[in-house]
Amino acid sequence: MKTLVWVEHENSLVKDATRSTVTAAAKLGEVDLLVAGEGVGSVAEMAALIAGVGKVHIAESPAYGHALAENVAPVIVELMAGYDAFLAPATTTGKNISPRVAALLDVAQISEILSVEGERTFTRPIYAGNAIATVESSDAKLVITVRATAFEKAEIGSAGAAVASFAGPGDVGLSVFVGAEIAKSDRPELTSAKIIVSGGRALKDASTFAATILPLADKLGAAVGASRAAVDAGYVPNDYQVGQTGKIVAPDVYIAIGISGAIQHLAGMKDSGIIVAINKDEDAPIFQVANFGLVADLFTAVPELTAKL
Ligand SMILES: Cc1cc2nc3c(=O)[nH]c(=O)nc-3n(C[C@H](O)[C@H](O)[C@H](O)COP(=O)(O)OP(=O)(O)OC[C@H]3O[C@@H](n4cnc5c(N)ncnc54)[C@H](O)[C@@H]3O)c2cc1C
Questions:
Q1: Which of 212, 264, 270, 286 to mutate to test the pocket of ligand 1 (most atoms within 8 A of CB)?
Q2: Most buried by CB count within 10 Å: which residue of 13, 116, 178, 303?
């Protein structure tokens, strides 16, 4: 089977989720990549070093500059004439582009696969991860999004794959990039961090959240996450949210502080290596998934823990 993987990048760096997607694609057969964007020659060179990649298509145009699904999907659809399967990471942008590719190819997308069981058979989470479905596709071409945390990142090799230019249809005139407000942070990125300290509703307000969670995260070199309740209450920005409607994370260590452990939150973090929970309610559901649980008032326990580290 010939597979095409869309490369998610930040105009200079290939994002880690792409490498996990390559691992998933390699289980199906040959892997080629598409790097679309403006001034992305160095991204294509970097992508060409990913182990197992046969060829990198580079589509350069201002039209592809901000990964607008309306302009990028037709590039993929043109390329798909020569491929059996298209894979993208199940990230915000991947989840924007991929359904449009599926619709244009008139096939059903297989979303957020967790494993490859056969050439056309995959597992994927349903009911917020409470059940795992095994699905088989009978479509002529496969369109798949990949849960990055379920696959190892493909290695970076030393031999570069061939890079070939591909024009694509350019601007199809359906959407225009207006602007982006990007939160800047010196902390590790949530989806690739090895340690995450997350806070919930119990943190009261933005300043209490910052005063309690950030010193612990700083000591551990950790990324900061939050429950939806904490985000909705304005303690932290939206992109901190972990869970079914937030980010799916699987760090080595996840520390949940003042988070009850609702299924929608667990859906985003229960694959973490070690889960530590601090909660004053010993019956909180978070303790059912925690490897280490501390029943305590977080306003005493967290400063004490931070001071001892
Ligand atoms: C469709 C849908 C999608 C959703 N998606 C998400 C999602 O992506 N992510 C997500 O997180 N939620 C999501 N939710 C919301 C989810 O159902 C919960 O409401 C939310 O996770 C609760 O957040 P919380 O644990 O911070 O708050 P709560 O459930 O209110 O829990 C607060 C916890 O803090 C503890 N506590 C209070 N004071 C202290 C203290 N002083 N010391 C120690 N512990 C203390 C309490 O015992 C309690 O367990 C979704 C809901 C729906 C319906």
A1: 264
A2: 116
